[in-house]
Design goal:
Number of strands: 0
Structural class: mainly alpha
Number of helices: 16
Distance between the termini: 20 Å
Radius of gyration: 20 Å
Number of domains: 1
Largest sheet: none
Length: 348
């Protein structure tokens, strides 16, 4: 397949824009509890869209899934269940911290954990301590953690500087303490997607053998992994519906308002799915620069998340020094992804 790094960067930019934007439509939902719109949007993000796109682009999707090794399917689904916890916590991060701060802190932990957990899990962490590429990678993680700390300091200042009314005017349920907890869990558990994709490699290979273009070979893997993620979110959201007595949200008689809510949830879920579609396409076009794919993807999400936060006035009312802290922390996170990418380049 012909490499085209410029096109690859453009596709990663689209994926980053989608990842930073999917929560915007959810903010337009009216009269529904968080668990209701998260579950409806998740049905589109993790079930309907993966099946629809995979059915269009995979050569005989049902045959591929039916013929795939059972161990591969079970492991891919299992890691998807664990990854679903990370996705759930990521959604809660947006709920408690807003888009700009939530994206920065959650993805900072995601980048750090996604870099360190796989080699730890595979017993290869010691190799990082004996190579230049390993030390570069660890330096990138250290810068990432520093960036998280700076963003966290900005979040604490925001909580101190704004009144309760001001907080609710920008992020209705702003809570820095809750946001940090769920962001840490999101970062740790989101690393399981890498294991899900690795476990699903036999499914992707079988898809190619059936005649699927390699550009789309991971689509059946996403069907299985996202089904696992949906399982986690489904049971948690239903539990919240029952506990909070919000099950009636799905069937209220206000048909006009209900339709609008469902449309916004469908839009949010579809945009969420597009991040993975564009990311997968972008990696196939980067050629020898593929080592930088995850770095570029993370950087674009942080950049677009910050721009959305400014556009939505999430930092309105805070002091200028706090705004500078936000930009400084985000700058450190972007630099950290570049340093990690450089470490990957040296390793290659």
């Amino acid at each position: 397949m012909e490499a085209n790094p410029l096109l690859g960067v453009l596709l990663h930019a689209l994926g980053g824009l989608a990842a930073a934007s999917f929560y915007i439509p959810y903010q337009r939902v009216r009269g529904w509890a968080w668990e209701t719109f998260w579950l409806v949007g998740g049905a589109f993000a993790w079930i309907l869209m993966p099946w629809a796109v995979a059915s269009l682009k995979t050569a005989d999707l049902l045959l591929v899934l039916g013929s795939a090794p059972r161990d591969a399917v079970v492991q891919c689904y299992g890691f998807g269940v664990l990854w679903g916890i990370g996705g759930l916590m990521y959604g809660l991060t947006m709920r408690y911290l807003g888009i700009s701060l939530g994206v920065a802190i959650a993805l900072g932990f995601c980048a750090a954990c996604g870099t360190l957990i796989p080699p730890m899990f595979n017993g290869q962490f010691h190799e990082l301590l004996h190579t230049t590429s390993g030390w570069a990678t660890l330096a990138g993680v250290a810068i990432c953690l520093l960036g998280i700390g700076v963003c966290g300091l900005a979040g604490m200042r925001k909580e101190q500087e704004l009144t309760e009314d001001q907080k609710q005017d920008t992020v209705s349920e702003f809570s820095f303490s809750k946001g940090i907890v769920v962001a840490v869990i999101a970062g740790i558990m989101s690393a399981c997607m890498a294991f899900a994709i690795a476990a699903g490699k036999p499914i992707a290979d079988l898809s190619i053998a059936q005649g699927t273009d390699s550009l789309w070979s991971n689509l059946p893997v996403f069907v299985v992994a996202f089904a696992g993620g949906f399982t986690t979110n489904f049971f948690w959201c239903i539990f919240l519906n029952l506990r909070n007595r919000t099950s009636s949200d799905y069937l209220r008689n206000d048909k006009g308002g209900q339709l609008v809510n469902y449309l916004f949830c469908a839009l949010g879920g579809t945009i969420w799915y597009l991040q993975f579609m564009f990311y997968g396409m972008g990696t196939t076009r980067m050629g020898r620069y593929d080592f930088s794919s995850w770095t570029i993807h993370m950087a674009f999400i942080i950049i677009f998340g910050t721009l959305w936060g400014l556009w939505l006035h999430e930092w309105r009312g805070v002091h200028a020094n706090t705004i500078r802290l936000v930009w400084g922390g985000i700058g450190l996170l972007i630099v950290s992804t570049m340093v990690v990418g450089w470490g990957n380049y040296l390793a290659g």
